[in-house]
Amino acid sequence: MLGLTIRWSLADADPGVEQRLATFVAETSHARFTDMAGLRHKTWRCVPGQWFEGSYVFASDEAREEFQRTFTETADQSPGTRIIGCSPILVEACDIVAVAEGRDGFVAVARA
């Protein structure tokens, strides 16, 4: 499987940025990526005060390459960059070795 990680540093971000990011994901970003062609799934992750990232799994090399290319071209104006106040510190393609679904199942929600 074809992964992509995009990470921003929160080290110098304003207080409360994590809540603003969570609100943006719940109100806007989750809907944008739900049912996106070429995307298997996206996970948003955050370690408060340290980093915020999007972790993607794509269906094809072409889908990942196109998304990475278009994101990289506009990264300085992306919503994450505008909210956090700095450009991503990492845009990295990777291979996803495996995904397991646990007994309690997968839940696709904007906010838990």
From TrEMBL:
Question: Where does the source fall among the domains of life?
Answer: Bacteria
Q: What is this protein called?
A: Monooxygenase
Taxonomic lineage is: Bacteria, Bacillati, Actinomycetota, Actinomycetes, Propionibacteriales
